[in-house]
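thought: user wants a sequence for this fold. calling inverse folding tool.
action: design(structure=
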């Protein structure tokens, strides 16, 4: 989606450009907001920042101004991303934008909500680290194109033309009178840290406000940063009053900081030239303003200020003396030196005019080369992202296929075990599976089980046929022997039955003859 949207945005001025309708833009925006919420819940902050960039690109791509509720949600999520990345400056700037948007657009904003938002803006603004005190030359030497581009890119996400600074945030804080709406317990915190000069009693003045912030769930996250600011303020104010101070005395002024933490802040302050300080571990003391060769800065120091360090006063006197000597040299300088310098200036100007066009062309070519390389890098990055996406999809597909295969095998094994249990309950199955162990069951499949079952049935069938044949043979032998034994008995029985039948026949014949004689005799009598 990000690649497709980038191509659409890149080629939007061409004749074949794709014109996204408001519905498509709204769906893209909802998708990115959902992705941002998911990334924040999963604490994937790099993905969250990419989603923020996509949302900003969609907002810029849309022709209509976004809804205030959408912008408020956008600023809330962006502020969280900045805070997790450790960028307190842009986190505070995001809260400033959210506060101004809520005051201007939300008509139903309650006093309690306004007070919470203002208090959070105050804590976030004061928690921004104090910038390094650099003179103009140091700023030019340390400011490179990559750093400026990063700041411009982050400022663009906040709809700002220029990158914010701690000083600009404080000016906006005063301009919009935000201090009037914060909690009464912390209203004096801004005055103590940014306006008044109290090196020996600063902690006692801000102690109540710090305790209130630490007990507040929404503001408690700013306590470590605020403590760093308090330590730095005490150091800078003490450096304007004392030339030497015992380390134990300084630790008493900041009781919440351990000695290790205090020494780390002192070293960081000396490294960034916020103040000139040296730690003497033998005497366990700190010395301020001992280096006369290093300029702290060229304008008034940041924060509460009462006077310069002694080293700054001496250095300013040396600068004034150097300027006076330079003016004296210019007054007593011979005219031929002035003519020679003028001729050199003319020669340099003529040389520049002769090479200006060529130099201009070289700069244009260099700009074109940089642009081409940038496009090439974007193309390579897009190609690399596509390849990585394809590889990820291939791995995901292979993983899904492997999981499907394992799931099928698991289901097949489960079905096989159920079949084995059912077979064990039958006589044939028990005979088939009685000689198999767990390893054999693991290697068997349905076809092997069916083949073994058929083989067992065939074997039992053959045994039954052989047993029947043997029984038929035994029965045949038995029947033949029985017939042989029956023949004499049957012959004897036949003779007896024949004799009895003859006697019965003769008796019946005699009865018939007697009956007939009786019938004739009776007729003769009648």
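)
observation: tool returned 526 residues.
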């Amino acid at each position: 989606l990000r690649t497709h949207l980038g191509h659409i945005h890149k080629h939007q001025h061409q004749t074949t450009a794709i014109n996204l309708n408001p519905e498509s833009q709204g769906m893209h925006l909802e998708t990115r907001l959902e992705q941002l919420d998911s990334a924040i819940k999963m604490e994937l902050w790099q993905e969250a920042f990419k989603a923020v960039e996509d949302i900003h690109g969609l907002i810029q791509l849309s022709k209509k101004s976004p809804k205030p509720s959408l912008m408020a949600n956008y600023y809330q999520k962006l502020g969280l991303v900045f805070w997790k990345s450790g960028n307190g400056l842009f986190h505070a700037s995001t809260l400033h934008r959210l506060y101004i948007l809520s005051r201007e657009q939300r008509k139903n904003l309650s006093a309690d909500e306004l007070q919470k938002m203002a208090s959070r803006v105050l804590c976030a603004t004061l928690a921004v680290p104090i910038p390094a005190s650099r003179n103009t030359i140091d700023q030019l030497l340390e400011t490179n194109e990559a750093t400026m581009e990063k700041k411009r890119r982050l400022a663009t996400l906040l709809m700002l033309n220029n990158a914010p600074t701690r000083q600009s945030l404080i000016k906006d804080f005063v301009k919009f009178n935000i201090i009037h709406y914060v909690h009464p317990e912390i209203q004096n915190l801004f005055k103590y840290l940014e306006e008044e000069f109290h090196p020996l009693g600063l902690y006692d003045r801000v102690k109540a406000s710090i305790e209130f912030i630490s007990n507040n769930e929404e503001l408690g996250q700013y306590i470590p940063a605020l403590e760093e600011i308090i330590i730095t303020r005490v150091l800078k104010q003490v450096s304007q009053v004392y030339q030497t101070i015992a380390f134990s005395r300084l630790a008493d002024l900041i009781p919440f900081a351990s000695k290790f933490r205090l020494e780390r802040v002192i070293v960081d302050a000396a490294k960034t030239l916020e103040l000139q300080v040296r730690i003497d571990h033998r005497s366990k003391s700190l010395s301020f303003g001992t280096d006369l060769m290093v300029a702290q800065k060229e304008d008034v120091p940041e924060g509460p200020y009462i006077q310069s360090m002694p080293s700054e006063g001496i250095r300013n006197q040396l600068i004034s003396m150097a300027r006076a000597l330079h003016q004296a040299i210019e007054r007593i300088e011979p005219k031929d030196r002035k003519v020679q310098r003028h001729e050199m200036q003319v020669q340099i100007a003529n040389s520049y005019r002769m090479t200006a066009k060529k130099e201009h062309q070289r700069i244009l070519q260099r700009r074109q080369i940089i642009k081409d390389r940038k496009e090439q890098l974007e193309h390579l990055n897009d190609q690399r992202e596509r390849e990585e996406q394809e590889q990820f999809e291939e791995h995901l597909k292979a993983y899904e296929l492997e999981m499907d295969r394992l799931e099928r095998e698991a289901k097949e094994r489960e079905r096989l075990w159920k079949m084995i249990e059912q077979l064990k309950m039958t006589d044939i199955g028990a005979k088939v599976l009685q000689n198999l162990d767990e390893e054999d069951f693991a290697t068997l499949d349905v076809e092997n089980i069916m083949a073994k079952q058929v083989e067992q049935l065939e074997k039992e069938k053959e045994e039954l046929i052989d047993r029947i044949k043997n029984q038929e043979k035994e029965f045949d032998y038995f029947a033949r022997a029985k017939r042989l034994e029956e023949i004499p008995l049957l012959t004897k029985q036949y003779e007896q039955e024949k004799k009895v039948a003859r006697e019965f026949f003769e008796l019946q014949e005699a009865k018939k003859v007697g009956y007939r004689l009786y019938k004739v005799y009776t007729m003769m009598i009648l």
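thought: summarizing for user.
answer: Here is the designed sequence. The longest strand covers residues 277-280.
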